Amino acid sequence: MPKLSAARIRRALPTGRRLVAASVATVLVAATVGWAVWPEQPSFTVRSALLPVPAGPTGGEPVPLDTSFFLPEDASADRRVPAVLLAHGFGGTKDSVRTDAEELTEQGYAVLTWTARGFGRSGGQIHLNSPDHEVRDAQRLLDWLATRPEVRTDAEGDPTVGVVGGSYGGGLALLLAAQDQRVDAIVPMITWNDLPRAFLPESTGRPPTDGVFKKGWAGVFFGSGAAPTGLAGLTGADPAAGGADAENGTADGRPAPDAPASQDVPPSTAAPGVPPPTADPACGRFAADVCAAYLRIAATGRADQAAVDLLRRSSPAPVLDRIKAPTLLVQGEADSLFPLAEADANARGIAATGTPVRVAWFTGGHDGGDGPKTDSDRVKYLTVQWLNHYVKGEGDAPGDDFTWSRIAGFDALDRGLVATGYRTTEYPGTAGDQRREITVTGPAQPVANPPGGNPAAISSVPLAGAFSSLLDGIAGDLPGQHARFDSAPLDEAVDVVGAPTVSIRAASPTGEAVLFVKLYDVDPNGAASLPNGLVAPVRLTGLPERIEQAQPVTVTLPAIVRRIEAGHRVRIVVATSDQAYATPAEPTVHTVAPGDGPVVLPTVAGDPIPTTATVWRWVLAGLLATIVVGLVVVVAVLRRRHRRQDSSIHPAYAGTPLAVRQLRKEYADGFVAVSNVDFEVHPGQVVGLLGPNGAGKTTTLRVLMGLTQPTAGEIYVFGHRLVPGSPVLSRIGALVEGPGFLPHLSGLENLKAYWRATGRPEAEAHFEQALEIAGLGASVHRRIKNYSHGMKQRLAIAQAMLGLPELLVLDEPTDGLDPPQIAEMRRVLQRYATDGRAVLVSSHLLAEVEQTCTHAVVVNKGRIVASGPVDEIVGESPSVLFDVTDPAAARTVLERLDGVRVLPDSNGQLVVDTNGTARSEVVAELVRAGVGVDRVVPRRRLEDAFLALVGENSRGSGDR
């Protein structure tokens, strides 16, 4: 497909000025629902009816379709409106998309929703979007729309109409546009290109007959169609979708007019949604040929050509050249059912004929739902923008920019995730427009295929791909069933946008192997993340018995959007089993090794998409200016004082961010808060300052920040002796004694005012990096007086990081943060302590210090009682604590292992002395015995060491 280039999305996205006009003149488009303030909601009517459609190409009793027709209240024969055909996902009904129908109606469209045949109250059987059944049903709905006097037409029998749908509904949109040229525009979401390839993928390019059966998703699909009433909305994860009740009526609460009698047909002889008594109970409401194909594939794990041909009949791939309707393809990044490559194939096939095409990736999908609100709003906006131009005939051409997004942090308002969108004027496809090559190494390794394919590794779970982030290496990839090949730590971050490729070699005594190739992002602490649980299944044949004779094979991994940070490693895992796929039942042992080339990571250079900001009132501009002038005066005075300071550098500490030497602080009343504190913080370290209440921690930090003078001792920052007002303080970022902000200013205004007070150029502030760390999203534009304590804490941390200081000093930085935010803060601090920077953090959360800090300084009664690496302070743990699903069974298994001893009197917990046996071997033995292992941790923790150092009943000196 040629590169797609057009007008940038900047012209289409709303600006603050346009928002003002829109809030007065009309309802803002669906993408900015969360930002708009609507004085009143337009009402609409909803009419429901059972519409008869032909049974199929060979005739038969008409099939009733359960429909709802949404019509703007002001639509009439004199004021006709364009229409939207809105399709639901597999297993859903018309009610699954009711909220979307209402939003589109409010945008001025007549919307027709229906329950596809074989689901809900509609009759007929499920043919998987067959051109002769479901697609022809949709054509009959187009005919019906053309007869409505309120619907605009392009010609007699030709309604002005767009088709929108997600998953099953998205496939219907593509197939309908190919079969009926009356369709003016389509928006297919999270849908497929080639159904046999989607359910029988093979990542080296082999045909679906050699594919690896995606049994998890296929079982979910078949189960939802075979169940008596289906599992409503099961795979209808439309990015623009929302739930609603099935009651009909107007938006203002008035009952809807009854549907014309001619639209009603008697229900089928069976109860609505229930298969007739003569139906095969193994097939439910599936058509016989579809059911038979599924049963054959599920029984053998392989597809015959007849099954492939049947599934391809319901695929857009063969008919993309017939689609002339402008197409907006929206695909989810968290989607193990229909990954990004499906939308890429659709885009290339449609654009090849000259049809306008635009591609948008978002962070949701079948496994990720709608994604963060910032992302779902963007998708809604793009959808309405597309329909407004190509169906309604309003607005500039949307263009064919490519947009994508990735998770950027947390929203401090609702504590949900925030996604950042990006755009580029040319669509690069899943291959990206740039490449980064990473070498992974490791010896050839044997991997066992388990008998019966069980126990199996877990990488993705249908409808819950993010579940993979909860799995560690032991639970996700089973010992003995996978090989690992790692890269060196990355020297710089890589933003992966597209499908990575990797070369592997394999050997097997059977000559054939089914393998699952995965790409992990491994942080410096060894925690491995599998992006969205996506894997690349391969079936290799003609393999030699010895790995030395094996030829390299290139594997195309699923397309992802992922930022792999500097210092992280890339890990390639090759496994023999996966819970989501069918694998050979015969046990055998394969050998795998890296191929002859690097891992290729595609990247795309794009511009961030600005989020819509609230319109600000500038009534406090004068006050802000006064504050800024006052701060400038203060800075000027301080600078004059700085000129009189000692500028000499202690040569022993010139490269040390912080050196505290024999610090003592005694108050006038004789109270000694700190008697003798002596420690250093070196580049790359995250140092935790620990101690009971009153131990002297806060006093030490106050002296460090020049807030109070020490009685004795010295503090050096990069060799400069620290005194109040010292110029070297500009190299320190600090949060001590809680955040303090001007309540009438917004968060961003506070940050800018603070930075202007430093007198340094704005370019050195790095506002974007600091705000990304804060994760406040659009809330950064709200006044501080409306902030919660946690939001103020996050903003204070961002303020401390302005200018990316070389030494960061934080007092209780996680105060007011919830567990996900605390985990994110942990990663932030670890990333920050790079490139010569260092962090000193005081905290009472010992578990967080143990996970976050490289070193610790323990203070008690004004003195240091221990200092050094955290691991050394904690000490080697002689025993291990296991959290298991069946402690009694686990105890029986462990007592059979040589050298392993289960300790008695452990307060009901399972505590084991492994006596040198690798923990992974112990875990593997438990898993093989069918015992689930939830957690494996050393029994001794930092808390244990801390209490041993300071005493459980220790009281400090009364820190002031």
TrEMBL record:
Record-annotated membrane-spanning stretches: 615-638
Signal peptide annotation: none
Gene Ontology molecular functions: hydrolase activity
SMART domains, per database record: AAA (SM00382), PepX_C (SM00939)
Entry keyword annotation includes Nucleotide-binding: yes
UniProt keyword Metal-binding present: no
Stretches assigned to the ABC transporter domain: 658-886
This protein's UniProt keywords: ATP-binding, Hydrolase, Membrane, Nucleotide-binding, Transmembrane, Transmembrane helix, Transport
Region Disordered, residue ranges: 238-277
Recorded family membership: Belongs to the ABC transporter superfamily.
Record's protein name: Alpha/beta fold hydrolase
Native source organism of the sequence: Micromonospora cathayae
